[in-house]
Amino acid sequence: MSKDLSKVRNIGISAHIDSGKTTLTERILFYTKRIHAIHEVRGKDGVGAKMDSMELEKERGITIQSAATYCSWKDIDINIIDTPGHVDFTVEVERALRVLDGAVLVLCSVGGVQSQSITVNRQMTRYNVPRIAFINKCDRTGANPEKVTKQLREKLDLNAHLLQMPIGLESDLKGVVDLITMKAVYFDGDSGEDIRIEEIPAAMLEEAEEKQEALLEEVSMFSEELMEALLEGGEVDTALVYDAVRKGTLALEFTPVLVGSAYKNKGVQSLLDAVESFLPCPTDVVNMALDLNDGEKEFAVTNDPKDPLIMLAFKLEDGRYGQLTYTRTYQGTLSKGDTVFNRRTGKKVKIGRLCRMHSNEMEEIDSCGSGDIVALFGVDCASGDTFTSEGISCSMTSMHIPEPVISLAVIPVDNKAQINMSKALNRFTKEDPTFKTFVDHETGETIISGMGELHLEVYIERMKREYGALVEVGAPQVSYRETISQRADFNYTHKKQTGGSGQYGRVAGYLEPLAEGDYEFVDSIVGGVIPREFIGSCDKGFKKSVEKGSLCGAPITGVRCVINDGAYHAVDSSDVAFQLAAIGAFKEGYLKAKPVIMEPIMKVAVEGPSEFQGSVMGSINQRRGMIIGTTEEGNYSVVEAEVPLSEMFGYSTTLRSLTQGKAEFTMEFATFKQVPKSVSEQLVKEYQDERKNS
Amino acid sequence: MGNELIVNNPLRALGLEEKAGGTTQAMMGLVMARAGLGKTAILVQFALDCMLLGNKVLHVSIGEGVDKTRTWYDDILSLLTDGEKLESIPEVMKNRMIMTFKESSFSKAKLEERLDDLVQQNIYKPECLIIDGYDFEKNDKKSLEELRDFMNTRGLKMIWFSALSHRDDKRVSLDGVPAPCHEVDMLFDTILLIKPEGDSMKLNIVKCDSCSVDPGSTLMLDPSTMLIKQV
C-alpha cells in the first residue's frame, strides 16, 4: 500500500476543561460525515457526544481518556486524539502529544487562557507540537476573541494572530471573515453544513483590510516571496500567504488563530481547512527512535512505508471488543497476519486484526503504513511498547512519566468484588503508567496510587461501573519515601536452634546512598564465604527490607546494599536463613545510616488578579511552600512555587475564599525532598502509634 | 564545589565581598553594555555569589519570564561548577526568588508593594536585589533616588542594576558613564562597563567607591561563557 503522506494529519485537540473541545470534535465528525447526527456532551437525548465513550465521562461531561478517531476532510485523512482537559490526567495529554504531529488548542472566548491552557501549552512546547488556536464559544455573552488572542501572546508567549474576524458576536454571531481570502463565510442549514461565501459586509471592510495588512506584514517574515510581493504592491497571491502561515506554524514561530462556535455550528469547517493547510503531515516532523544495538543512540525514523516497521503502542483500552492497543506507525507497513516483535519483551506477536477507530466503534482494515494511527486487536503489551519487524532493534524515545504522589487503600466489599477489582486493577495499570497498585503486606490492604485525588477517584468509579467492583475507600495518603543519608556497615548473624534442623547465616557489608535508582544489590563476596546459592537469598532479604522503612512505614528508595563478608553452616544454612540474615543486617545498618523521610513536592502555579498576589504568596508560605518566582502582566499575576503535597489538601477551597474565587491553580509533581525535622517527628510518632494500636 | 566557587568569586575580584556580608548602607551597582553583550550573565554571577555567601537574593526581571531567568542561573552555575544544577543544592536555591514583570506592568510603586508583601508576611527577606531591565530612559533621577531610599529602609545590602547603552548615543558623564545613565551616575557606588575588544571581552571598572580595585582598571571576561576571569 502506498499512500501520499502529505495528505495525512495526526492531530490532537487540547484545552482547558469546559472550553467545548468535545463538542468541537463531535462537529468535526459530523462535517466529515463520520456521524450523521449531532449529540451534545450533556445532551437531553441521553446519547452523549461520540468521543466521550466512557459512561463516567458522559455523566460528568468531561473527557477522561483520549479516544482516537479517524475521519477525512476533502482529500485529507485526519486522525484525531481527543485529550483530557483536567490537570490530574496530564499523562494522557502527554502521551497523546507524543504521537501527534500537530494540535488544535481550543480556548473559550469568554474564559480565555486559563491555567490548564498554560499547562497544555507547556506540554506542547516540550514535544515541539505545532499548533493552531480555535477560539470557541463566540456565541456566549462576553465573547472577546481579540482579548483571548492578546492573552495567547502575553500569557502563552505565542506569536498568535487572528486569521479571521467574527461577523457579529455573542448571540449575533453569523459567520466569519477570512482575512486571507478576504471573503465572508456563513454556515447555513440546520447544522451549519451549507457553506455560503459572500463579499465582506461593507461595515466591516475597512477594519478587515487593516487587519489583513497587519497579518500579511507579520507572516511575510516567514516567506521571502511574500515579502517581495508585498513590497512590489498590488494583489498578493493567497497561495503565498498560506505557504507563509504554514512555514511559521511548522517552525513554532507563528500560531494561526481561528474563531467560531462549535455549539452554534459556526467556523468548524474553516478550522478543518486550517488543519489541512497549516498543520504538519507526518513527513514534516522528525521523530527519533533509539537504536538498541548501538547503546540507544538516537536516529530519525524514515516515514518510508517500504522500510522495516517501527510502531509505538501509546494507549491500551479494554473495551467491549477486548483489548485494543492504539498505535502510531513511524515507518514501514503492517498488514493483517504479519508477525512483529515487541522490543521490550522480545516476544513475537502475530497481528490478527487491524482497526481504524472511530471513538468506540471500529472499522477493520487490511494494512496500515507510516503515519497511521490504528488499533491492534488482542495484542498483549503495555503502554509505551515498541513493535518492529525482524532485523531492526529499536525503541521509540521513552515518555516522560511522573511518579505517583498520592495513594489510598481500597477494600472490596465481598469476594465477587475482590475478583473484579483484581481484573480492573490489572487493566488500569497496563493502560496508565502513572497508576500503580500493590498490596500492603502488613495490613493486607490493596493500595492504589496515582497523580492526584481526582485521578484515583476516576479509577474507583471505573472499577464500580465497568467491572462491578464495589470497594470501600480509605483516606488519601501522601506517598512518602524513606532513604539513607550516609554509609553504614552491618554484620549480622542469624542463628536459630530450636530442635530439628537449625537456621544459620551471617551477612556483613554496608549500605550506602544511591544517587540514581531505587535499589541496588552488589555482591562483593570472595572466597565463597557465602555460597553462590545463597547470594540470591540475601538479595531477596534486602528487597523485602526496602519495601517498608522503619521510620514511617514508607518504601525505602535510593539505597545500595553491598555484601562483602559472611559465613554459613553446612547443615543449618538455607535460603530462608540467609533471607532472614539479610533482613536483620539491613535493620542493623539502616538506623546507623541516618535514615530520613522524603515527601513529594509539587510544582504549583497560582494565577489570578495581581491584587491578590500578596495573599496568595502568604497562603503558599503557610503551607511550607517555597516561592520560585512571580510574573506580573497588567493586572494579572502568576505565582510559581514548590509546595509539599501533604500541605495542598483543601487548597482550592482556601484559594477560593482568599481571592473571591478569582484565582486558580495547577500542580504537577516536581521532586521528592526531605521533610523538615518537626514533620518527620510527627510522621514517626503517628506510625508508632498506629503500630501499637494494630 | 564551594571552594571552586569562592576561588572564582566575582565579588571578591572587585573587593565587594565584605559589602555582601556587611550591615551598612546598601551598595548600589550598575552593569552597562550594548544589547546582547552579557549584562544578565554578569548580574547572575553577582547574584550567585551573594547566594553562596548565604544572602537572600531577589532577582527582578523586567521583560523576561521566570523560566528564562531561571535558565540563566542554571547555565552560569553549571559553567562555574561543571554541570551542577541549582535545584540539586536546596540550601542555595532557597536563597533566590525571581520576580518578573512585563515592561508595561513594572513601576517603582508596584515593586515596593511586592517587596513589602514579602517582608511583612515574613515570606522572604531579600538582602541583595538584582534589577535587570530597568528602563533608565523613561525613569528619571528622582525616581531612582526614591527607589534607593526605599531599599535602604528595607535593609538591603546590595542592589545591582543593568542598563542598556546605545552605540550611537554619544552622551557621557564626566566620569565616562555613557547614556542613559550619564546623569544618574552619582547615585551608584559601582559602575561596570562591558566592552568587546577584538576577540576578548573586558569589564571596565568605571566607578568603584567601595571596591578594592581602582577605577579605570579592567577585569577580563571569558567571551564564550561571560564568566569573570580570576584576577
Give the averaged pLDDT of chain B, no decimals. 83
| Rg for CA atoms of chain B | 16 Å
CATH class of the largest domain in chain A: Alpha Beta
Order of the strands making up the biggest sheet of chain B: 3-2-4-5-1-6-7-8
Terminal Cα span of chain A: 65 Å
- Tell me the name of the CATH class of chain B: Alpha Beta
Percent helix of chain A: 25-40%
Content of β-strand of chain A: 25-35%
CATH topology of chain B: Rossmann fold
Largest sheet of chain A: 8 strands, antiparallel
Question: Based on the structure given, which CATH architecture of chain B is correct?
Answer: 3-Layer(aba) Sandwich
Strand numbers in spatial order across the main sheet of chain A: 18-17-23-14-15-22-19-20
Strand segment tally of chain A: 38
State the fourth-level CATH superfamily of the largest domain in chain A: P-loop containing nucleotide triphosphate hydrolases
Structure at a glance:
Chain A has 694 residues and is α+β, with helices and mostly antiparallel strands. Chain A contains 16 helices and 38 strands.
